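Input record (one chain):
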Amino acid sequence: MHVSETLSIDVLEAARRRIAYVFAHFDNVVVAFSGGKDSGVLLNLAIEHVERHEPARRIGVFHLDYEAQYSATTDYVDATYQDLAGRVENLRCCVPVKVPTCTSMYQTFWRPWEEEKRNLWVRDLPPYHLSAADFPFITPEMSDYEFQERFSLWHHQKTGAGRTCILIGLRAEESLDRWRTIVSDRNIHKFQGRPWTTKVYENVYNAYPIYDWAVEDIWRANGRFGWRYNSLYDLFHQAGVPLHAMRVASPFISAAKASLSLYRAIDPQIWGRLVSRVNGVNFMAIYGDTKAVGWREVEKPAHMTWKDYAMFLLDTLPPETAEGFRQKLATSIKFWREKGGVLTNETMDDLRRAGIHFEVGGPTNYKTDKLPVRMEYADDVESNEFRLIPTWKRLAITILKNDHAGKYMGFAPTKAEMARRAEIIEKYRGL
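The corresponding structure, as predicted from the sequence alone:
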């Protein structure tokens, strides 16, 4: 185990101390268990604490079952719940919430365990599970992310707890967004100022005890203590997938597109069912790691500009899908004309070399020393920060990726999505 950058102890001891702190200050503790390597290690650490220090304590184990996943993941989750039967609260949820998919121009989301499509289910329901009938707060428009967040409040109220903590196996090493979740200095949203916690609702917090672990630490812990883990990782290793690229996630999200074809080799029976379950899966498995869907260097027809190509792509989309992209384009154009996005001096130099006119504004309220740049959409710009620059090529790549949310263009959730989330929180705040 490597030594924590902020502590003089290794990350294993640091995690154990954080978990002990959670158990000392929260009467209701739930582990979010995805079936991946990180959540598996965190669950084992939590069980270790209970067995050593509070054997009478009963924790919850929350698993959102996505129906369509590798058989090895299902086997691992099944075996874990079987081993812990009677010792933990089984919170395995099989609910038809909206889950994003980037495999199709026609389908922006799908629903696991959708009753109307039972004949297409990838597998049968597990013997014990919680269904939509157990959660009165579920709505037809609720996403998987919203369900997971709302679940914590539901369980807090159901148990009558004074304080509830959801332990999450998030590691800052894995992405910038995860790093920001941990290092935010807004202590008003932390429990007693602990940087590895985040307030979700009143008296309901998320905690990330292994946030400073490296992926190597995860595997050292599994080897050292002989903990069971998802055998899918062994298959990934045999397939040549790099250690830092091994992910157990929904096969239809953007991050999984490039490796979707592995299903055919690793889990052919499940693969055959995936093809008919969600639109566009077979195409994405064939072309998901190619320029055809914007994953590698994208080319346009020689007689077209990138603007021409982007407009051509929009004209080929279903009307509703195209309108979603057009709305995001209009929002982006307005933003870059009136407010501007913050760019580094190096990126501004790239704009100058490309002969692109832009205006630089003064300091902003953003937590950065970068200055805002106002400009019109450019056709293409060679830059290491290409994704941060408003170009028609970036729009074309976004369309090719079926990135309906516009993440490649830097879009966060829309105001409507955020407003709906705020309404849900406010509705249940006093319950």
